[in-house]
Amino acid sequence: MSRSRKPEAVIAYAKIHPSIGIARVGNSRKDDGYYLGPQVVEPEPRPPGYYRDRSGALKREVAQFRLYGYDASGRVVRELCMEDGVEIEWTVELANHKAAWYNFELALDIPEALTATPSTRRNAKVPLPERHKLAITPGPRSIDKPDMQGKKYRFDGGEIMGVDVPLGELRTDALGRLLVFGGHGKSASLDGKPPVTFANNDGWYDDTSDGPVTARVKLDGRELSVAPAWVVVAPPNYGPQQKSVRTMYALMTDMAIQAGQLPAPLRPSFQQDLLPIFRALCDLQWMNAGFAAGFGYGMPQHLLDPAYLHKLSQPGKTYEELRRTVANAFRNPADQDASLKPWPWVYGDAMNVPMPPIPRAMTALTTTQLYLLDRWANGDFIADYDPDAKPPRAIDDVPLAEQPAMLDRAALEFCLADAFHPGCEMTWPVRHATMYLEPYRWRHRAKDNPEPDYGTTLTPAEATSYNGPLYAQSPGSITRWMAVPWQTDTASCRSGYQPDYDPYLPTFWPARVPNQVLSAENYRTVMNLKLSREERLAAFNDRSDWDRTLGVGYQNQLVNMVKHFDRQGIVEVRPGIENDPDFPPVMQVEDQGGKDMTEAERAATDATMRKIERLGTPTVSI
């Protein structure tokens, strides 16, 4: 049924949003074994068990794409939906070129790459005339009608050396919005050899992928120009409520500002620009024991403590030195500081064991974020902190004019821009402005302009050259830089590589791949009011190794991650204890496959989740 509309401005063109959508693999085979990826910056916490089906298998995260019509002045007129009589034909082309690409040794755009191990071809023994068989290229799929089944639009037919590797499927919802499903997390060896390293395992393949998202749109018989998008099918998200201290959105925003594609900010908003940084530092208490001790609830640097946060949010001279000491605690690459101690305590692109005495061995905030921190420290900021603010929890709660930007941002806020070594969802090429048609939107390579062959070794000079791989992109161009298979990198990148310095810090990617977690067993102890406070405090401050389920021995752990990646815990929101100085009212707990809760606990959790949904998650409590 068509929806009645008021007279509107003339739609001149359309854009697909999000401009970069994120899907994630999962091994659930059930019809409802999926969920939509984040569509707002602060989505509602999901109830325990949400990310698994009833068998315990991981659901797939699905990327939803929408079309918006714009007038000639660039204002959003409305969302374009099939039910409104708009003719829409979506086309997506997924591909996986990992096995046909080059080994990852180091990000090729940093000085250390000049003396690093050369990036030679993966599966180098496969001769050049046969190398196309290493690429999984099922071709494009198009869908032009509402279809929630997707059976007709599967990315089947792609092969690696004659082995079929399905990459996912397309569906649409009742309004004709596009749904892109990735693979089921299938990884295997062509020759039966086990994986041996974190990134480059010859003979192996996986079913992650990426590719362009385009649409043909006719409005009242008139064909519109449509700005295209991209979808990246990434590994699972084991910390769905977490954000990195430096998100992919922050990195791409900074890159666009440095390239002159976006205006430079003048004054930071405390609520919008600074609070998210402080919140990310504190939220990582649920993913890493070092962050729990440094920024956890009740600890001296718990930046979200109401009294502390109030002081940080105040302009003027009263707390000027407090602001300055906090700002100075963050690593600034301009200082050329090679210490592990400045914030954030996260490994960088050039990390190694032992850690080299160079600044790029550790991650820093973006140049823009550091500038905003400096302005804040000097008192030049918008003092707009509102502890009772209730952000939109769903995209339909966002005003129409702001929905496209929100969709673009939400997808990238939950992607990591920590160490590009190589990374989780994507890696170092995305920090180059040459890849972008506009902010957050990549250029697409024309089919009649094939990428040149770069030879047996991809050098830093060639990688960053004018006709190199950092310009227009083809299906599979984003994920080809990542580890093959993805499970070996997820199982390898941990924390505390130098235990004589700290057994838990620095860390790799804790927002996506946990290091140490609050176990279900310890959580039950914390919540048992019959036990002594000392016993409960000990349980709360005890963090269990997230990778303990992988067994003993590195090679064995790689194999187990490939076979049983669904057995790894998801860190999910659960009720805590209200009005207690030692225990927060909301906690995050490892789910242990979703089978660790009693019926009474689940009922209590459901009641608390309904309360959280009704009142909103307290900003200062997590």
Describe this protein's structure.
With 622 residues, the chain is of the alpha+beta class. Helix content is 20%, strand content 18%. The protein contains 13 helices and 24 strands. It has helices at residues 248-258, 270-283, 289-295, 306-312, 320-328, 367-377, 403-413, 460-463, 486-492, 520-527, 533-540, 554-564, 599-615, and strands at residues 13-17, 20-24, 34-36, 60-70, 76-80, 87-96, 119-120, 136-143, 159-160, 163-164, 169-172, 178-181, 188-189, 204-205, 209-219, 222-227, 229-234, 436-438, 441-442, 457-458, 516-517, 544-545, 571-575, 586-590. The strands form seven sheets. Strands 1, 2, 3, 4, 5, 6, 8, 11, 12, 15, 16 and 17 form a twelve-stranded mixed sheet that branches. A two-stranded antiparallel ribbon has the order 7-20. It has a two-stranded antiparallel sheet with strand order 9-10. A hairpin with a 5-residue loop joins strand 11 (169-172) and strand 12. Helix 5 (320-328) packs antiparallel against helix 6, helix 9 (486-492) packs across helix 12 (554-564) and helix 10 runs antiparallel to helix 11. The longest helix has 17 residues, at 599-615. The chain starts with 12 loop residues before the first strand and ends in a 7-residue tail after the last helix. Mean pLDDT is 94; it is low at 615-622.
